[in-house]
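Objective 1b: paired records.
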Amino acid sequence: MTFQISKFMASPLCHRLMVLAIVCFTVVGAQAQQLSMKEQLAALQRLEAMQPDSLGPKIQQAVLLLGFVCTNPQDSNAKQYVDEAQRIIRKIEALKPQKAADRSDLATLQGFYYTALIVMNPQQNGPRYYRQALDNLDKALKINPGNMMAKMLSERFKEGMTKGSSN
């Protein structure tokens, strides 16, 4: 019996079945991640509806959308998500944030937006938007030097530019 199991495990059919299982789990995992993102977005939208003048839910929605695009730039919904993030950023601008932390968060989102555009199509959008991305992230850090998200995005952006120019 042991010989038959080990013989099957070594067979090409077994290898194909394992590869098929891995592919299926990957696809299911990706769908679950996207569904999870959509569920998170829906929850934030409900929170925004309850607190229409609050910046927090809007900022979180934009970060969620742009973060998804930056990690999944070839996703079929990436363009739609970037457009939705831009719409949310405009809502935040319309509220005219007064606190320095809120203005810094807005500048961070604007830098993140341009970064997402670049990640979606580096060849075309890199030369077009890199200055806006850097300027907005720098502005965010000038307004609030303790803005950890702006620091992280700025460092990653500059790191990505360095890697891109060395290739």
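Objective 1b, second protein:
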Amino acid sequence: MGIVIPFPTRQVMDDELAIQLWELVMAGQIGTPEYRRLDAEISRRKAIAAPRREASSGRPWR
């Protein structure tokens, strides 16, 4: 029997989303459904990451 390696699911990195959003801005497509979808996804990811950053930014020497 062989080793089974799970197939990786592709997740778009935050940088790729920002690049796609910038390309839409440069193409003059602000306000399109694709622009709104990307903007909402970036905002969602920032909102999820914000509480983690706040919790880990405590000062250990207090």
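The longest helix spans residues 33-56. The mean pLDDT is 81.
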